[in-house]
Design a protein that fits this description.
This protein is mostly helical and about 220 residues long. The protein has 8 helices and no strands.
Length: about 220
């Protein structure tokens, strides 16, 4: 298959992965049991500003791009400014998938909330696995973790854990100072910190080889 043929397969899979991630984001919000660590900042900004979660995600992701520039400085690859476009697409996907998850019963009993939380982890993990497998471009939040790894020499996984929990800590501060409570962080946040990774590892073990053959024949 020609190189252009590869892109015909990779771009749709990349976008599907992004869309599945946004379904996971909205399911975690719907569960009311706390959003995943990386989504806590967009969620709390949405509550503070009164803006939609989609728009808040776009704004926060744009700040993540600026963070990458500050961390990497001359090492920053300017092609990564295309992440701005990804941020806009992701924000639009959040709004679109929010309309879909909005059809589900809100404020359900706890077992249903827990089911929503488990489904959100599944969608997030699957979406991340798909978009990463295409090897096109990192999402802004992952771009910050990669930038930290490049500068510090630490493994990307270590930098991601540090960044995720830094984001959670900032969310707590914003929530307490602006809303005078702790919003968006509950048991689901901590379960997702491990559950999403487990889902990604599951797909890595069972789908990596056939997916790579499909994307790069």
């Amino acid at each position: 298959m020609t190189k252009s043929g590869h892109w015909v397969r990779r771009i749709p899979v990349y976008l599907i992965g992004m869309f599945l991630m946004t379904i996971g984001v909205n399911l975690s919000v719907l569960s009311g049991l706390g959003v995943s660590p990386i989504d806590t900042i967009p969620y709390i900004i949405s509550l503070i500003s009164g803006k939609s979660l989609g728009l808040s995600s776009t704004l926060v992701f744009s700040v993540y791009i600026v963070l990458q520039i500050l961390i990497l400085r001359r090492k920053f690859k300017w092609k990564n400014l295309l992440q701005i476009i990804l941020s806009i697409i992701f924000g639009w996907f959040v709004s679109l998938s929010g309309m879909l998850t909005g059809l589900l019963p809100a404020d359900p009993v706890y077992p249903v909330k827990f089911l929503y939380m488990l489904l959100s982890m599944g969608f997030l993990g699957t979406g991340i696995f798909l978009y990463v497998a295409t090897d096109i471009m990192s999402m802004p939040a992952d771009g910050v973790s990669l930038a930290l790894a490049e500068v510090t020499g630490k493994p990307m996984s270590t930098c991601k854990i540090f960044f995720d929990w830094s984001v959670v800590a900032l969310t707590v501060i914003l929530s307490l100072t602006q809303l005078h409570n702790i919003s968006g962080i509950r048991e689901g946040t901590f379960i997702a910190a491990f559950g999403v990774g487990m889902c990604i590892r599951f797909w890595e073990r069972h789908l990596t080889e056939p997916l790579q053959r499909f994307l790069f024949p």
